């Protein structure tokens, strides 16, 4: 496409690019909403599928920019990295569950439980990376994120010494890797 002296062709290309970004954000949101409707309802009656489609359309129309704000190529890369992160965090949750099971059934339970509040600072910059780390810590049994601010300062409650020693640890490295941030 050639650029005219008055900038009409340039603005057309820019508006077309934005249209496709908005359209793909809407489309991905619609597909996710409709698939969620199908999975959660478990019904395949034509009327219910139609109602689910209409509901998904309206939700996607009004809120397409909440999940995927103007879809950028880097979001696809982050999504692919995040799909690698999910199995790892699930494995960490399973390991922490067994650790808490050990603590709960140990005869010296009162001696092993030593609750602490740990404060640490990270170099995470984006809100989504900070929220992901905070939620991952909270999902892991034995630890709860008490607070996390936009400066990357976390306060975490840990039930025992072993749970406290692992903070922030490899989880911080994995989250920084997913969102392409330096630690």
From TrEMBL:
It is found in: Cell membrane. Its main location: membrane. Keywords: Cell membrane, Membrane, Transmembrane, Transmembrane helix. It is a multi-pass membrane protein. GO terms for molecular function: monoatomic cation transmembrane transporter activity. The chain crosses the membrane at residues 18-40, 47-64. GO terms for cellular component: plasma membrane. InterPro entries: Cation_antiport_E. Signal peptide: none annotated. PANTHER family: NA(+)/H(+) ANTIPORTER SUBUNIT E1, NA(+)_H(+) ANTIPORTER SUBUNIT E1. Belongs to the CPA3 antiporters (TC 2.A.63) subunit E family. This is MnhE: Na(+)/H(+) anitporter, subunit E (Mnh complex subunit E).
């Amino acid at each position: 496409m050639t650029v005219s002296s008055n900038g009409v062709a340039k603005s057309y290309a820019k508006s077309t690019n934005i249209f496709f970004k908005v359209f793909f954000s809407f489309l991905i949101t619609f597909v996710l909403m409709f698939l969620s409707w199908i999975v959660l309802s478990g019904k395949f009656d034509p009327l219910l599928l139609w109602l689910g489609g209409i509901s998904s359309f309206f939700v996607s129309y009004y809120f397409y920019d909440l999940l995927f704000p103007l879809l950028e190529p880097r979001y696809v890369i982050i999504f692919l990295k995040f799909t690698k992160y999910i199995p790892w965090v699930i494995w960490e949750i399973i390991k922490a569950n067994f650790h808490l099971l050990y603590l709960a059934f140990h005869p010296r339970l009162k001696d092993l439980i030593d609750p602490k509040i740990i404060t640490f600072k990270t170099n995470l910059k984006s809100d989504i990376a900070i929220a992901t780390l905070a939620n991952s810590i909270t999902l892991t049994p034995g630890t709860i994120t008490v607070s996390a601010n936009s400066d990357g300062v976390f306060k975490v409650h840990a039930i025992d010494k072993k749970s406290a020693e692992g903070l922030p640890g490899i989880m911080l490295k994995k989250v920084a890797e997913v969102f392409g941030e330096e630690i």
